[in-house]
């Protein structure tokens, strides 16, 4: 496994996370919009509460890239 493969897998993983979080945010927005119950010309007030756990976010973002780097280093150590 080369560094290029590690970089490509990392970018694909981050793109997957981005799309997953975007879809989750869209579902939350649609759910909040359905609960808002608009009536006529009144302004629509939509509130979405989000809880962010910084430690979990760091682990989700960097666990796979760090694991790939460690695997790459161990694989490179075994080759002459």
Write a short abstract of this structure.
With 80 residues, the chain is mainly alpha-helical. It contains 2 helices and no strands.
Structure description:
The protein is an all-alpha fold and 80 residues long. The protein has one domain (3-78). 74% of the residues lie in helices and 0% in strands. The protein is built from two helices and no strands. It has helices at residues 3-36, 54-78.
User: What is the total number of structural domains?
Assistant: 1
Pattern of helices and strands: HH
Q: Let me know the average pLDDT.
A: 85
Based on CA atoms alone, the radius of gyration comes out at 20 Å
Features:
80 residues, mainly alpha, 74% helix, 0% strand, rod-shaped
Q: What's the helix and strand layout?
A:
Blueprint: H1 3-36, H2 54-78
Helix pairs in contact: 1-2
């Amino acid at each position: 496994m080369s560094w290029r493969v590690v970089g490509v897998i990392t970018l694909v993983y981050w793109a997957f996370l981005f799309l997953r979080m975007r879809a989750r945010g869209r579902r939350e927005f649609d759910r909040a919009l359905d609960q808002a119950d608009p009536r006529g010309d009144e302004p629509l007030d939509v509130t979405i509460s989000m809880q962010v756990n910084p430690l979990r976010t760091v682990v989700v973002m960097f666990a796979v890239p760090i694991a790939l780097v460690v695997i790459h280093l161990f694989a490179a150590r075994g080759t002459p």
